[in-house]
Amino acid sequence: MSEHYQALLEKLKAITDVEKAVAVLDWDRETYMPEHGIAGRTRQISTLSEIAHRMFTSNELGDLLAAAENEQREAAYDSDEASMLRSVRREYDEQGLFTPEFVRRRSEVTGAAGAAWAACRKKNDFAGFRPHLEASVAIAQEAADIYGYDDEKYDALLDKYERGMKTAAVRRIFDEVKAQTVPLIQAINERKGAIDDRMLAQDFPVEAQRTMCRYAAESVGYDFSRGNLAEVHHPFSTSFGRNDVRITTRFAPEYAVSSLFATLHESGHAMYEQGIAEALDGTPIGKGTSSGIHESQSRLFENQVGRSLGYWQAHFEVLQRHFPEQLKGVSVEQFYRAINKVQPSLIRVEADELTYNMHIILRFELEQALINGDLKVADLPGAWREKMQTLLGVVPETDSKGVLQDIHWSMAAFGYFPTYTLGNLYSAQFMAAARQQDPRIDTELAQGKTTQLLAWLRENVHRHGSKYDAPELCRRATGQTLSAEPFVHYVREKFGALYAL
Amino acid sequence: MSEHYQALLEKLKAITDVEKAVAVLDWDRETYMPEHGIAGRTRQISTLSEIAHRMFTSNELGDLLAAAENEQREAAYDSDEASMLRSVRREYDEQGLFTPEFVRRRSEVTGAAGAAWAACRKKNDFAGFRPHLEASVAIAQEAADIYGYDDEKYDALLDKYERGMKTAAVRRIFDEVKAQTVPLIQAINERKGAIDDRMLAQDFPVEAQRTMCRYAAESVGYDFSRGNLAEVHHPFSTSFGRNDVRITTRFAPEYAVSSLFATLHESGHAMYEQGIAEALDGTPIGKGTSSGIHESQSRLFENQVGRSLGYWQAHFEVLQRHFPEQLKGVSVEQFYRAINKVQPSLIRVEADELTYNMHIILRFELEQALINGDLKVADLPGAWREKMQTLLGVVPETDSKGVLQDIHWSMAAFGYFPTYTLGNLYSAQFMAAARQQDPRIDTELAQGKTTQLLAWLRENVHRHGSKYDAPELCRRATGQTLSAEPFVHYVREKFGALYAL
Question: What ipTM describes this predicted complex?
Answer without folding.
Answer: 0.92
